[in-house]
Amino acid sequence: MARIMMLIVMLLSGTATSQLPEFTQQYRQRLGGAIDALEEILADFNRDAARYGLTSAEAIARQKSSEDPFIRARGDSMLNAEIRLSRLKLQREELETAGPLDRMIIFARDFDPTLAQATAEDYEPAVPVTPAGFASAGVGALGGLLIMRLLIGAARLGRRTRPARH
Predict the structure, then answer these.
(1) For the CA atoms of 30, 33, 37, 38, what is the dihedral angle to 10 degrees?
(2) Cβ–Cβ under 8 Å, residues 94 and 28
(3) Which of 26, 93, 145, 159 is 20 to 30 Å from 55 at the Cα level?
(4) What CA–CA distances, in Å, run from 120 to 24, 28, 39, 124?
(5) Are 144 and 12 in contact (CB under 8 A)?
(6) 67-120 pLDDT, tens per residue?
(7) Integer Cα distance of 29 and 19 in angstroms
(8) Residue 164 neighbours by CB distance under 10 Å
(9) What start and end residues bound the annotated signal peptide (predicted)?
(10) Phi, psi of 60, rounded to the nearest 5 degrees
(11) How far apart are CA 64 and CA 68, in angstroms?
(12) Cα angle value 61/65/71 (rounded, 5°)
């Protein structure tokens, strides 16, 4: 029974981790869309600022020093958009130059929570027929095997150390 359970856990954990390369790929596609959208928003903002003889930084500073709380909040939003755009562009560059396995590490290290959530909501599983998919599945299956071995070993140890009943 333990071997069957171990096999089931290995299959489930291997299947789950085999999806990491595909999830990362779908995240990368959304990343490009998010960058395009932020660039468009900031380009509109910069055009408006230029029309009044301001740089982006000057326009944001003016908004942030406004008496109106709504205008101050918009200044914070524009500053956050600039920061996020820089971060997303850097991540895209790293993902474009990385190999398939490194992409998963880069994603795990620096993912954008909003973008990852949106990716998860629309995620469609795929059959892992790439080397990265097979490697990821293998790591997951190995992890499942190790967890099951630990659990079985702990259960056996628990049976051995129980005092005998008289």
Answers:
(1) 60
(2) no
(3) 93
(4) 10, 12, 23, 9
(5) yes
(6) 999 999 999 999 999 999 999 999 999 999 998 889 989 999 989 999 999 999
(7) 16
(8) 4
(9) 1-18
(10) -65, -45
(11) 9
(12) 90
Rounded Cα distance, 5 and 26, in Å = 32
Percent of the chain with pLDDT over 70: 89
Tokens of 155: 């259960």
**DSSP assignment letter at 7:** H
Please report how many Cα atoms fall inside a 13 Å half-sphere around the Cα of residue 86, on the Cβ side. 5
Predicted confidence band at 166 (pLDDT cuts at 50, 70, 90)?
Answer: low
Nearest-angstrom CA–CA distance, 126 and 164: 52
Q: Rounded to the nearest 10 degrees, what angle do helices 2-18 and 131-161 cross at?
A: 150
Locate 151 and state its tokens: 């659990």
Amino acid residing at 107: F
Enter the pTM of the model.
0.69
